[in-house]
């Protein structure tokens, strides 16, 4: 009986140690990907703004662009603060910025003629070149 009790305590000790290790890995994953999560949220805000513009909900589109701007500020600050910069994060941030500040903003301008369309395309290409 004492052996069984000792075995149970050892199993319990291993369980708690593995829980701590699992918790540490989870926290490290969150630390490394917090900025990426904010970039994805920025991308979602930009795509939602595009959809709002296409459905002529320009007021909502403007608010989503503001949310995207704030998320863009936050993702850079979080990445620097947590020292969690990565190649994937940089590309994800650029893609989110292009979507939010390039495509969504150009659609919000509501180009209606050939000249308006060409200017909107020039604006999108300038944003692309900048990133």
TrEMBL record:
GO terms for cellular component: membrane. Signal peptide: none annotated. It comes from Eudyptula minor. This is cardiolipin synthase (CMP-forming). It is found in: Membrane. One of its GO terms (biological process) is phospholipid biosynthetic process. It catalyses: a CDP-1,2-diacyl-sn-glycerol + a 1,2-diacyl-sn-glycero-3-phospho-(1'-sn-glycerol) = a cardiolipin + CMP + H(+). Its EC number is 2.7.8.41. Belongs to the CDP-alcohol phosphatidyltransferase class-I family. Coiled coil: none annotated. InterPro entries: CDP-alcohol_PTase-I, CDP-OH_P_trans, CDP-OH_PTrfase_TM_dom, CDP_ALCOHOL_P_TRANSF_CS. It is an enzyme of class 2 (transferase).
């Amino acid at each position: 009986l004492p052996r069984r009790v000792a075995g149970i305590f050892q199993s319990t000790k291993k369980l708690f140690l593995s829980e701590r290790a699992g918790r540490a890995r989870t926290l490290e994953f969150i630390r490394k990907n917090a900025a990426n999560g904010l970039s994805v949220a920025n991308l979602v805000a930009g795509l939602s703004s595009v959809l709002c513009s296409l459905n002529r909900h320009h007021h909502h589109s403007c608010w989503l662009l503001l949310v995207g701007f704030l998320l863009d500020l936050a993702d850079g600050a979080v990445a620097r603060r947590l020292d969690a910069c990565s190649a994937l994060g940089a590309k994800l941030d650029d893609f989110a910025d292009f979507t939010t500040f390039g495509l969504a903003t150009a659609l919000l301008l509501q180009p209606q003629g050939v000249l308006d369309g060409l200017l909107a395309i020039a604006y999108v290409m300038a944003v692309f070149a900048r990133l």
